[in-house]
Each structure stands twice: as C-alpha cells, then as structure tokens.
Structures
1.
Amino acid sequence: YYFIGRSDLIQTQLTQKKLETNFSTFITKNAKNINEEEIYILFNKLRKTLLERPTDLKGFRLLVTTSLSLKEYQTARIAQETVIELSNPNVSVEDYILYLDLALLAAGGRVSLEASEVLQEAEVLYPQNEALIFFKALEHLEKREYQRAVKIFYFFQENDSLDIKKLELLKQKLLRLRI
C-alpha cells in the first residue's frame, strides 16, 4: 500500500525525533533578515547560558517564547519539556497544553509517542480539560482509532465549547479520511 496510495495504512505512530526530522526536510530555513540577526545572537546567547544553568525555570520559559517567536519549534518543544520537568509536581495545565502544541507544530501536525505520554500524564491530573480532550482526538487519529476521534468531534460540535480553529482542524483531518 505504501507506494500505491494510502501510506497511512501501514505507518505507525512515530517518535518525536523521527517526526521532527521528517518534517524539517519539508520546511525551509527561517528567513533571517537584518533585524532578526540581533535576535538570533541573543537567542544563541540564552541557549548557551541555560547550558550553564540547567535549573533556571524563568530562563527556559524565556527560551520557549523566544524560540516560538523565531519559529524554532523543535527548540521550543525541548525547552518546554524542561519547564515541565523543573515545575514537577506543580505543572499547570497550560504548561502541558503548550508542550502538546509545540510537539504538534514541530512534528508537522502529527502526534508522536512522546506527546502521547505527556498527554496521558496531563489527563490524569486534568481529566476534563477540553484542550487535552482535543489532543486526545488527534492522538486517536494518529493511532487509527477513527471512531473515538469522531465521537470527540461530535461531542465538541454539540457542546460548542472548543475553539473554532481547533474544531475546524479536527474536521479537516476527519474529512481527509473519507470514512
């Protein structure tokens, strides 16, 4: 099936590193203009400083926001992972959601095994959070558990409780399946 058409029939859920590597071959490097040069110098200085200060929670949060603004999603995801580790056991739901968003961006819209593990951890602490339920639907799609994803989609559609952009993303992914 791989070369005939539906490669998703044989492709399993992959690791974050594999997804990021595959996705990075499809995107071009960030366009660095003169104004961004200074930001990149400061960005690299921040990264070097954090190597010397591995427990600096504020520094890693700053690295996440800076990386995100520079579209350095892989760096932002790794920094957010460190934020979660340093914040443990007081990790907020927003920290988990940000990590899942970054993992999704870095992997080109796919849900990795690592993202699934973080999602599972977050669901235990925050079982009714709608954003986490949304990521659960994406995870079901990745694992080819289509009926579970459809149930979540209809739940959100009926309750009108999820952000319209996320609902639209879920709808588009389901429409691509043609199930």
2.
Amino acid sequence: IIAIIGILIVLGLRLPDVIRESRGLPPRKDGRPLAWFEDSKNTKPTVDPLGLADRTDLVIPEHDPAPSLEMADAMFAQKQFDKAEQLYLQLTKADPRNPKLYNRLGVLFLELENFTDAREAFKAALTIDDARASRYYNYAMACYRLGQFREAQDAMIQALKRDPKNPKYQEFAEQIRKTR
C-alpha cells in the first residue's frame, strides 16, 4: 500500500509535465514539480504561466477582423481573388451605396474574365454615382469584352465628356469605333 501511495505521489507530481508534453508544450522550466506553488507564495503570478512566450512555433488563432477595403485590396494584389471577392461582397452588403466597392468588384471580375458580372458591378457603381469618367471607362471595357460594342461606345462618349483629354479613353473609344 505504501508503494502504491508512493507511485501515485510521483505520478501526481509528474502528471503536469506529462500533460504538457502531450500537448506539445515544453516541460516546466525549473523541473521542480511544486515550483509553481512555492513561487506563488513569494511572487506575483507570471504573465505567461505556461511558458509560451518563448515559443516561436505556436500560432495563436485570432478572431477574423471585420473586412476592410484595404484587406480586400491586399487580397486582390496578392492574386487571392476568391478571398478578395468574398471581402468585396461583404463590404457591399455593409455599405450598399458605396460605388467604389462595386467598381473594385468589377475590376476583380475583369481580371477573372467574368465580363458579365464585371458589367453588372460597373453598372451598379454608375447607378450610385455617375460623375467619374473612370466608371464609364470600366463599364465600356466590360461591354466591349462581351461584344456589346454600341453600349461600350455610348459609355466611352460619357467618359470622354467627363475627361476629354485622357489619352487612354481616346484610344479605347477609337478602338471601339474601329471594331464596329
């Protein structure tokens, strides 16, 4: 009976290290089984009681932050188009009257050669705010790629009304004219 009690005491003292090792954590730094108890009498509790601060191989999961335009743009720049699209769509749900979001979504769809969705996204941006020439230019590009040359030409007329000296717009309008 004394031997069994001795084994249970040793196991009880060693058990915290076994559990730590099974979870991939290092054993206690000082190796003293009751060090946490002895130290707790004399000092304040440590900020890192499990000794994780020194571990560089652990990734502590964070909650997903709220989507932002910067985050979506970063995903787009990294060519993570699925993530970027998801973020842009979440942003449009949160702010449905922001034409910039629909414009960015349209640019993403152009990049993916999804011209139908690109045209719809640019059209939504124009419905909200039709003051920018670039929105008409983008809409024209989507229409052109869909073979809707008349609609593309009309959009470029509007773009050139807003920015008549832009050489990029002039060249694209001429390209559309020649295609028709």
